[in-house]
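Notes from the 1:1 (GR / supervisor)

We went over the backlog. Supervisor wanted to see one worked example end to end before approving the batch request, so GR pasted a single chain during the call. The sequence is below; no edits were made to it. Supervisor asked that the structure be written out right there so they could see what the output format looks like.
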Amino acid sequence: MDTIVLKTKEHELYNITDRVIEIVEKSGVKDGLCLVYTPHSTAGVLVACGIDPNALTDVDNFIRKLVPIETPFAHTCDPKTDAAGHLKAILTNVQQTFPVENGKVLLGSSQEIYFAEYDGPRERKVYVKVVGE
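Structure output shown during the call:
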């Protein structure tokens, strides 16, 4: 298993597509699966359109609108963004699985893989596991 380490800022999306592609290519697996997972309760792994930067702005704005930091939460955390981060992580999930074919991650022409920071700043880890048939 490989680890991507990120030093994050506040609520932000980080494109990790190239790093995942490198890990898959380095693995030597021709056909199989690639699991991308983060072990953090206030972060997520998601797939979004990478062609138009405004698409990421829309994704970010939508998530912020769904779960604003100012929402009154039953559980209190420190800092106050932590409770909102828990809910955002549930909405976007902490993992994604991708098929690997002919040594390549199968992504659509506009798909890219993002790590989503919902709390931060933090040092975050993303684990990438590639398995073959």
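Supervisor's comment: The first strand starts at residue 2 and ends at 7.
Batch request approved.
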